[in-house]
């Protein structure tokens, strides 16, 4: 192999490929056929996660001699069936994806090298390599025969024989992302237009048609095809007949170390460079990519060949790294140029123009435009590429790496005496991210540590530019720090933190971060959260370290994984609230986090770790941390796999006096009654624990009996207990009722989704009648209750003065059950404030009793009646109650109740007189335009209604004017839901204009 060198005087250096080649990791999977960000930003995204999956056997590693092995074909039944036909008859199409610089072309060279030596793929007699970039120069029609002969003219006399044995042919197309032809396999025109249907090697057509025919097995059926591409072009292949999808991960584990050892003649220097990179969290995250390893080696190598006394500060940031990379190029090449400063300025201007226009390949005309000419000096920055050997004007140029192009573009702004900074600084508003790294380098070059090495060869970097960039960074941070509602806003804020990190200006960071109390990059769903890479986590850790006022860090669903968490751990102890749910931290991540919890200065009070793939393996470390931590009061571990063994270990820590946990969430952790004895022991000894969530486990009746014994203990201070979905029956309720009668602390009990039945509720009702019972909230949703079992509960409500919330959704109470509840609601002793009766098979027959109760009850403020069948007659009766002053309802839900416009006259009359109702839910009914018009008139002058839910009511443009009139007149409405109706765009626009032009309090229109 021959390579251009930049650190020695000879133009080329020759070595054997096998002497320098380090095996790259290829996986038999493709992590999403989607557009990927700049590889420095993305870091190959889930690289370390894939490493873990490889170790666990979840992903299969492919050697280069296995790419055309049928066992790696796409793992579907249809692919299995097709393999019987394609493996021998139709050949194999393989696609290998990888980011820039990951080693795709080197992999291709290694395949050809080993094939030529007879070590792999002996069934292939001919291997034809085509660089897709070279194919762009073919503007006219051509056939496969001439395409081969242009590259391999020595085959002229035998090319006709090749077609007879297509199974002996392998075609390699390297760099599909650089191909400019139309190659979209989702385009059905190719199957209908004869000029595109290339099925014969001598058929004249566009180059893209030849590629299409080979990959789709329409041309030379039986041949094999290998395509390499960056992820950005993979969407073109989604509909292609590809047998093997693979991704080039680059270096994994020891492969990184091996590369650095091969990179230097001295093994000691290679080991020293690797050790430094491994200890530098930011630089180490770049090492999966061979091109970055190369840059790291060239930049850092000189530091470890100098004597210690003469060593300069070693780079810590990406800007400093590239600054020393350029420094080493200049050190060995600037002797060939008269004015290094001017040439670097022109080169940077060309680089910036390329970024603006997403251009990475330049020709001689571009060089002339910027006053440049090919030279030994330029070869340190640009690679010459010959598109076609027979052409005289086929030489093009590309920067050694896209990131080098971006660095030089940024450097040019500091070399210019009169830079147009507004032009360069305002381009950050472009949403495709092309300027992200450019701006990071701008911020980084404002740092003396990054600028100083370059000033040895160019004039001192423009001080005015430095000041302007610092001011710009300050403005950006202050503007973006509160704009985190959208993913775009979160991304922009993160970028500003990258600017601060690259600038290494601690004074600027402290000034701009000011009194920042919370940071939010997460969200309740992964779609709305910002995925963070390990590099992002290094930067975030740096930011938190410089902010003394931080209290809450929200990284929900940011997918930081254990590698990202390790980068954050040094500063996490400063936060009081830490939201890390949905990050796939695993046990190794939990072990790292335990270090932060053990920190003597730890301030963490609330820690959310739901849905992180935790098992009992991590609980030793967590228990150790809990035994010494004095700050943590709330710990959320639901939706993991701790199991009984894990909870037993945690129980040991919870019994310690040092442990201050007040709320512990262990829902959905595969717990059984086997671990409950340990937890019961905790309840009897731990006086700080107030809330315990055990939802969605398998405790069973025996487990709850053990808990009940602990609840009866006077030392137990539990106030809230969650036992929903635990396979409970009436067998456990006698013990539970006994505990409720004795516990002086328990106020909330959640028993949803069990099978207590009528007999079980009768037992609990006995406890509710006991004056010692302090229960305020009782959840009995989905427990198989009927009207028979509700009798005892109604009796308890008649005397119980503590119960304020009762959840009875999804049972079978029917009208008879509601009549009994209504009797209890009429009693002055009943203090119920919120009552849930959704989905209980209710009809209008029960509303007369319900109206009677609402007309006399002064405590009930919320009533939930969704998913029943009250109908218009039932609604008319309820309207009668709403008209009365005695009715104190503030929230009423009547969705899915078969209501029509017929009931709205009575409802409108009630709303015009009611002074308490603030929320009205009428969704999924059939009110229609005529019905809501009456409601809008009634609510026009109402000063109370704040939320109105009318989705799915067959509304159309016919009611728009009435709705607009209502919105203009009503000043109290904050939320209006109109989803799933039939409004046209014209009506929607009219509504938006009203909201914008009128100063209403409306916050959401759905």
From TrEMBL:
<dbReference type="InterPro" id="IPR006553">
    <property type="entry name" value="Leu-rich_rpt_Cys-con_subtyp"/>
</dbReference>
<dbReference type="Pfam" id="PF13516">
    <property type="entry name" value="LRR_6"/>
</dbReference>
<dbReference type="InterPro" id="IPR007111">
    <property type="entry name" value="NACHT_NTPase"/>
</dbReference>
<dbReference type="InterPro" id="IPR041075">
    <property type="entry name" value="NOD1/2_WH"/>
</dbReference>
<dbReference type="InterPro" id="IPR001611">
    <property type="entry name" value="Leu-rich_rpt"/>
</dbReference>
<keyword id="KW-0677">Repeat</keyword>
<dbReference type="InterPro" id="IPR041267">
    <property type="entry name" value="NLRP_HD2"/>
</dbReference>
<keyword id="KW-0547">Nucleotide-binding</keyword>
<keyword id="KW-0963">Cytoplasm</keyword>
<feature type="domain" description="NACHT">
    <location>
        <begin position="92"/>
        <end position="233"/>
    </location>
</feature>
<dbReference type="InterPro" id="IPR051261">
    <property type="entry name" value="NLR"/>
</dbReference>
<dbReference type="InterPro" id="IPR027417">
    <property type="entry name" value="P-loop_NTPase"/>
</dbReference>
<keyword id="KW-0067">ATP-binding</keyword>
<dbReference type="GO" id="GO:0005524">
    <property type="term" value="F:ATP binding"/>
</dbReference>
<dbReference type="Pfam" id="PF17779">
    <property type="entry name" value="WHD_NOD2"/>
</dbReference>
<feature type="coiled-coil region">
    <location>
        <begin position="875"/>
        <end position="902"/>
    </location>
</feature>
<dbReference type="Pfam" id="PF05729">
    <property type="entry name" value="NACHT"/>
</dbReference>
<keyword id="KW-0433">Leucine-rich repeat</keyword>
<dbReference type="GO" id="GO:0005737">
    <property type="term" value="C:cytoplasm"/>
</dbReference>
<dbReference type="Pfam" id="PF17776">
    <property type="entry name" value="NLRC4_HD2"/>
</dbReference>
<dbReference type="InterPro" id="IPR032675">
    <property type="entry name" value="LRR_dom_sf"/>
</dbReference>
<keyword id="KW-0175">Coiled coil</keyword>
<protein>
    <submittedName>
        <fullName>NACHT, LRR and PYD domains-containing protein 3-like</fullName>
    </submittedName>
</protein>
């Amino acid at each position: 192999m021959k390579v251009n060198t930049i650190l020695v005087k000879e133009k080329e250096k020759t070595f054997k490929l096998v002497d320098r080649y380090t095996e790259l990791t290829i996986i038999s999977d493709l992590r999403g056929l989607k557009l990927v960000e700049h590889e420095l930003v993305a870091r190959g995204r889930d690289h370390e996660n894939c490493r873990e999956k490889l170790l666990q056997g979840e992903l299969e590693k492919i050697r280069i001699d296995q790419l055309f092995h049928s066992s790696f074909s796409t793992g579907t039944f249809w692919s299995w069936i097709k393999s019987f036909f394609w493996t021998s008859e139709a050949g194999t199409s393989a696609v290998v994806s990888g980011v820039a610089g990951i080693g795709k072309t080197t992999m291709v060279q290694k395949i050809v090298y080993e094939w030529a030596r007879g070590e792999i793929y002996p069934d292939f007699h001919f291997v034809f390599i085509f660089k897709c970039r070279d194919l762009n120069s073919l503007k006219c029609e051509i056939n496969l025969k001439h395409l081969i002969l242009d590259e391999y003219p020595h085959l002229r006399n035998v090319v006709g024989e090749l077609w007879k044995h297509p199974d002996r042919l392998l075609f390699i197309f390297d760099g599909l992302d650089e191909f400019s032809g139309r190659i979209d396999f989702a385009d059905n025109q190719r199957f209908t237009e004869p000029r595109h249907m290339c099925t014969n090697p001598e058929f004249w057509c566009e180059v893209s048609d030849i590629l299409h025919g080979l990959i789709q097995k329409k041309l030379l059926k039986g041949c094999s095809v290998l395509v390499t591409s960056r992820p950005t072009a993979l969407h073109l292949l989604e509909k292609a007949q590809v047998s093997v999808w693979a991704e080039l991960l680059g270096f994994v584990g020891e492969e990184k170390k091996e590369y650095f050892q091969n990179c230097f003649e001295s093994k000691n220097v290679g080991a020293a460079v690797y050790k430094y990179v491994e200890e530098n969290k930011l630089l180490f995250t770049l090492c999966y990519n061979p091109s970055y390893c190369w840059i790291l080696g060239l930049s850092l190598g000189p530091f470890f060949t100098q004597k210690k006394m003469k060593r300069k500060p070693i780079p810590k940031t990406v800007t400093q790294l590239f600054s020393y990379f350029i420094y080493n190029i200049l050190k060995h090449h600037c002797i060939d140029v008269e004015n290094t400063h001017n040439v670097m300025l022109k080169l940077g201007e060309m680089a910036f123009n390329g970024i603006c226009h997403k251009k990475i390949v330049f020709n001689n005309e571009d060089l002339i435009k910027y006053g440049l000419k090919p030279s030994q000096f330029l070869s340190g920055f640009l690679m010459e590429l010959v598109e076609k050997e027979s052409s005289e004007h086929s030489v093009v140029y590309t920067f050694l790496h896209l990131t080098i192009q971006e660095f030089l573009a940024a450097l040019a702004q500091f070399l210019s005496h009169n830079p147009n900074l507004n032009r360069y600084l305002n381009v950050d508003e472009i949403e495709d991210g092309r300027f992200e790294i450019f701006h990071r380098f701008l911020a980084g070059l404002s740092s003396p540590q990054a600028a100083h090495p370059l000033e040895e060869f160019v004039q001192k970097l423009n001080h005015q530019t430095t000041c302007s960039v610092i001011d710009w960074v300050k403005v950006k941070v202050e503007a973006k720090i509160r704009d985190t509602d959208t993913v775009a806003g979160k991304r922009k804020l993160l970028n500003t933190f990258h600017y601060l990190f690259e600038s290494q200006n601690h004074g600027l960071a402290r000034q701009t971060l000011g009194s920042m109390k919370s940071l939010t990059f997460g969200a309740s769903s992964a779609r709305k959260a910002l995925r963070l890479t390990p590099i992002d986590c290094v930067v975030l850790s740096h930011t938190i370290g410089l902010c003394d006022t931080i209290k809450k860090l929200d990284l929900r669903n940011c997918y930081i994984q254990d590698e990202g968490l390790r980068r954050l751990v040094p500063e996490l102890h400063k936060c009081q609230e830490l939201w890390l749910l949905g990050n796939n931290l695993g046990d190794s991540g939990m072990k790292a986090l335990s270090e932060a919890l053990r920190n003597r200065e730890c301030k963490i009070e609330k820690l959310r770790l739901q849905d992180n793939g935790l098992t009992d393996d991590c609980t030793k470390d967590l228990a150790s941390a809990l035994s010494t931590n004095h700050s943590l009061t709330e710990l959320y571990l639901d939706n993991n796999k701790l199991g009984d063994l894990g909870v037993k270990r945690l129980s040991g820590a919870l019994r310690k006096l040092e442990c201050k946990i007040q709320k512990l969430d262990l829902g959905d952790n595969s717990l059984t009654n086997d671990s409950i004895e340990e937890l019961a022991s905790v309840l009897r000894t731990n006086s700080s624990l107030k809330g315990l969530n055990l939802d969605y486990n398998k405790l069973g009746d025996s487990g709850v009996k053990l808990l009940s014994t602990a609840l009866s203990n006077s030392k137990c201070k539990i106030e809230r207990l969650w036992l929903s979905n635990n396979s409970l029956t009436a067998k456990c309720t006698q013990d539970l009722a006994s505990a409720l009668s004795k516990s002086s602390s328990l106020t909330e009990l959640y028993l949803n989704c069990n099978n207590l039945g009528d007999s079980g509720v009768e037992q609990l009702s006995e406890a509710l009648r006991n004056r010692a019972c302090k229960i305020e909230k009782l959840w009995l949703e989905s427990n198989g209750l009927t009207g028979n079992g509700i009798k005892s509960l109604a009796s308890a409500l008649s005397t119980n003065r503590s119960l304020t919330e009762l959840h009875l959704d999804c049972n079978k109470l029917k009208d008879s059950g509601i009549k009994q509840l209504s009797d209890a609601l009429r009693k002055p002793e009943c203090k119920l404030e919120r009552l849930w009766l959704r989905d209980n098979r209710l009809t209008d027959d029960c509303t007369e009793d319900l109206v009677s109760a609402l007309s006399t009850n002064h405590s009930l403020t919320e009533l939930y009646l969704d998913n029943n069948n009250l109908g218009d007659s039932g609604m008319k009766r309820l309207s009668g109650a709403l008209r009365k002053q005695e009715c104190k309802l503030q929230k009423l839900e009547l969705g899915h109740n078969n209501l029509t416009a017929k009931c709205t006259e009575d409802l409108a009359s009630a709303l015009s007189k009611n002074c308490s109702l603030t929320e009205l839910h009428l969704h999924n009914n059939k009110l229609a335009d005529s019905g809501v018009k009456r409601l809008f008139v009634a609510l026009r002058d109402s000063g109370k209604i704040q939320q109105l839910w009318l989705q799915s009511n067959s509304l159309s443009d016919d009611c728009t004017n009435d709705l607009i009139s209502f919105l203009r007149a009503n000043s109290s409405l904050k939320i209006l839901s109109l989803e799933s109706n039939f409004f046209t765009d014209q009506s929607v626009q009219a509504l938006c204009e009203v909201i914008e032009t009128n100063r209403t309090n409306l916050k959401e229109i759905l």
